[in-house]
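Run log, item B.
One chain of 161 residues. Sequence copied directly from the ordering sheet:
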Amino acid sequence: MRDNNDMPGHLARRFQQIAVAVFHAEAEAAGYDLTPVQYAALAAISANPGIDQVTLAGLIAYDRTTITGVVDRLAQKGLIERQASSRDRRARELTITPEGSKTLEGITPAVEAAQQSMVRGLTAEETDDLMRLLRKAIAAGNELSRAPLRGMPMENDRKTS
């Protein structure tokens, strides 16, 4: 039987646990109450004003059925607004509010600090390698996910930094 530390799934889960814990710690220290998924949604809405929930789910690789809860919480916090789409009565267009823009701008340094903390044991070159390999593995397995990433460049579309 293989040791868990030799299994990519176990290591990915552990890294995710660390990533979430670090994100929460940095966000709370900066005075913000956002989850990593709420942050990703807020950033995507800011970059894509008028986006609908289904498209948002694809952009952040989140399950379409549970994105509603994320959107609800962002709206309850006054960070986004929903309005009926002029193109599709069933769809709701999402836009960031001034408070949402202020929150996004304010939390960004904490998010950046969290990203650095997540790779603090790596050199800059190792971090670049990790990012390249993660993008490559994600691109290869994207369609296997219950919530595949849609509408954003994957490994072959990005330049290595």
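Observations after the first pass:
- Residues 5 and 11 are 6 Å apart (CA to CA).
- The two ends are 38 Å apart (CA to CA).
Flagged for discussion on Thursday.
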